[in-house]
Design goal:
Blueprint lengths: L1 E4 L6 E6 L6 H8 L4 E7 H14 L4 E7 L8 H13 L7 E6 L1 H13 L5 E6 L2 H7 L4 E6 L2 E8 L4 E5 L8 H18 L1 H16 L3 H21 L14 H11 L7 H18 L5 H13 L15 H9 L9 E6 L5 E7 L1 H8 L1
Parallel strand pairs: 2-9, 3-4, 3-5, 5-6, 6-9
Antiparallel strand pairs: 1-2, 7-8, 10-11
Bound molecules: nicotinamide-adenine-dinucleotide (NAD) and zinc ion.
Organism: Algimonas ampicilliniresistens
Protein name: 3-dehydroquinate synthase
Subcellular location: Cytoplasm
């Protein structure tokens, strides 16, 4: 399956399927004349799938850059290490820099590719479900600093995204569920029929890594994201819808502290539950609809608001975290709310009083 991201001269294909990794070499030959590829990955992925990527790139001169796993790599030190390795190996901007990993490796490698000699050919081969349905598509790249997450970065589109669902076989179930949260999100934003299909059983099949369900759900998710990105590459408008559940999630993540207690996708799952519950409370969305979203998530043992009790004890701190969200403008809190399943919209001035009452 191929999904096109329509960005004119910067447009690219997302190739999705079981065993696609074995066809990576041919795909690369169709986008570049260079036979050099730098593969940036982490130690965990390298131990599990290093042999498979080496074999897929056997026609290329390959340079491996293997970093420790973890969010820490999205830092100036991580960036410097990747760039240094590229210079030492004598890479040019016409050579390919390939991210082989989850969102951490993708964000770090994409940013490195964007600044390496003012921009080198960049390719994504995502290995987590979250990266396959979300972070590898759309061209947001970034590292973190002391002031917060993703504050230093660039919009830099890949030339190819290649998704092999077989890579997910080694991913821990907690990470699979975290990725599933972003899949449901696309249904809840504007694809009600996709939500129905997930609720009818495809969702459960995705979580058990059934190949057809995975291909279907990943394709729809990538098409949904590609659609929004093509309309609004730099998030001046509709792209903000992709943040459904994310303002609540962001506040929960800050409260929990980054580093394991709560995965991003887990916070997003509960955050979407909260966005629907809050919409219902405001009378924007029917109460049974919000209940349906919650039931869908809890039947799949995905986190909902009730599971976040340890991080919901202090409404004032949560609200102050929500005030710091990057989406906000002019001192107002921007929230993605919903009138129903597949009927999300951007609310640019959410009532702080209502929010505080809800969080209490
Ligand atoms: P991650 O990259 O940290 O990967 C999670 C863990 O899984 C890591 O320990 C990794 O080593 C391991 N792993 C990866 N692939 C594996 C496999 N196939 N088998 C076994 N283990 C594997 O986490 P993530 O959830 O993929 O990404 C999170 C990051 O993505 C965050 O930094 C977030 O900011 C970023 N993000 C970016 C965007 C974007 O648009 N650029 C969107 C969403 C999230
Ligand atoms: Zn997210």
């Amino acid at each position: 399956e191929v999904v096109r991201v329509d960005l004119g001269s910067r447009g690219y294909d997302i190739v999705i399927g079981q065993g696609e990794l074995s066809r990576l070499g041919d795909r690369l030959k169709s986008i570049t004349a260079s036979d050099r590829v730098a593969v940036v990955t982490d130690e965990t992925i390298h131990a599990l799938h290093g042999g498979a990527i080496a074999e897929a790139l056997s026609d290329f001169r390959t340079h491996m850059i293997i970093r420790p796993a973890g969010e820490d790599q999205k830092s100036m030190a991580g960036l410097d290490a990747v760039l240094d390795s590229l210079f030492r190996a004598g890479f040019d901007r016409s050579d390919t820099i390939l991210a082989f990993g989850g969102g951490v490796i993708g964000d770090l490698t994409g940013f490195a590719a964007s600044v390496f000699k003012r921009g080198a050919t960049f390719v994504q081969v995502p290995t987590t479900l979250l990266a396959q349905v979300d972070s590898s598509v759309g061209g947001k790249t970034a590292i973190n600093n002391a002031y917060g997450k993703n504050l230093v970065g660039a919009f830099y589109q890949p030339r190819l995204v290649l998704i092999d669902t077989n890579l997910l076989a080694t991913l821990p179930v907690r990470q699979i569920k975290a990725g599933y949260a972003e899949i449901v999100k696309y249904g809840l934003i504007d694809r009600p029929e996709f939500f129905e299909a997930l609720d009818d059983g495809i969702g459960a099949d995705v979580l058990s890594l059934e190949p057809n369900a995975l291909r279907e759900a990943i394709s729809v998710s990538c098409a949904a994201k590609a659609d929004v990105v093509a309309q609004d590459e730099r998030e001046g408008g509709v792209r903000a819808l992709l943040n459904l559940g994310h303002t609540f999630a962001h506040a929960l993540e800050l409260t929990a502290g980054y580093g394991g207690a709560l995965l991003h996708g887990e916070a997003v799952s509960a955050g979407m539950d909260m966005a629907f519950e809050f919409s219902a409370r405001l009378g924007l969305c029917p109460v049974p609809t919000a209940k349906r979203v919650q039931d869908h998530l809890s039947h799949l043992s995905m986190p909902i608001r009730a599971d976040m009790a340890p991080f919901l004890t202090d409404p004032d701190t949560l609200l102050s975290h929500m005030r710091q969200d990057k989406k906000n403008e002019g001192g107002n809190i921007t929230l993605i709310l919903a009138r129903g399943i597949g009927q999300s919209f951007i609310e640019k001035s959410a009532s702080e009083a209502e929010l505080k009452a809800y969080l209490k």
